[in-house]
Amino acid sequence: MKVMVAVKRVADANVKVGVKSDNTGVDLSNVKMSMNPFDEIAVEEAVRLREAGIATEVIAVSCGVAQCQETLRTALAIGADRAILVESNEDLQPLAVAKLLKALHDKEEPQLVILGKQAIDDDCNQTGQMLAALAGLPQATFASKVSIAGGSATVEREVDGGSEALLLNLPAVVTTDLRLNEPRYVTLPNIMKAKKKPLEIVKPEALGVDVTPRLRTLKVSEPPKRSAGVKVPDAKALVEKLKTEAKAL
């Protein structure tokens, strides 16, 4: 069974980012970039399936600028067998990425596609669902447990009322939640081995996909700074203050 995993290059989760002076976007100059944490969980799950003898090959895929090769090398160091980069300098939006992944799915014909449920830079939570719709595949989102047996996948996911289990016929699309697993620590020997693993680079044009942005960002601004608090002498003063603030609203 072949498994395809999509990974995205984003600003590191531990870095505080700011907005550009012209309010056109987030300032990523001199910012540390890493693999999207949810995608790291997806890679870990795919590698565990291969280590369990269920999957035979894990393919890591990324769409974006040339520097995404670094993110793919991280996926290879975790345990992916080979990688594919769809290189483009366009601002790739979820629909464009879904179309690129659909083209790669048609080419590679994996039995399972695993993605992070969302990226921490835009929080769109759309790519997995769009891919499933474009490819006509069953899907399970926010997976907290995945089991593969007999040509089907059983996916447990948390919902408002508790949890539910979905049975999907393969091939299928699964997006990962934080509770699915804890990614392994990437060791130096595996980083060195990853440098020798195959990494293919293709262009969107070669896949027959138009990645022209469909949405335009008008303005990006930081949230307003929190105003200073007010001290009151006692509970009575607090109640009066709350009443005054409520009337002002």
Automatic annotation (TrEMBL):
What InterPro entries does the database record attribute to this sequence?
ET-Flavoprotein_bsu_CS, ETF_a/b_N, ETF_b, ETF_beta_N, Rossmann-like_a/b/a_fold
Which cofactors does this gene product need?
AMP
Q: What keywords are assigned to this protein?
A: Electron transport, Transport
GO annotation, biological process: carboxylic acid catabolic process
**A GO molecular function held by the record:** electron transfer activity
**Keyword Transport in record:** yes
Q: Does the entry feature the keyword Electron transport, yes or no?
A: yes
Record-annotated Electron transfer flavoprotein alpha/beta-subunit N-terminal domain positions:
23-211
Q: What SUPFAM superfamilies does this protein's entry cite?
A: Adenine nucleotide alpha hydrolases-like
State the oligomer form and interacting partners.
Answer: Heterodimer of an alpha and a beta subunit.
UniProt lists the family membership as follows: Belongs to the ETF beta-subunit/FixA family.
Q: What does this protein do?
A: The electron transfer flavoprotein serves as a specific electron acceptor for other dehydrogenases. It transfers the electrons to the main respiratory chain via ETF-ubiquinone oxidoreductase (ETF dehydrogenase).
- What name does UniProt use for this protein? Electron transfer flavoprotein subunit beta
Q: Which organism is it from?
A: Caballeronia glebae
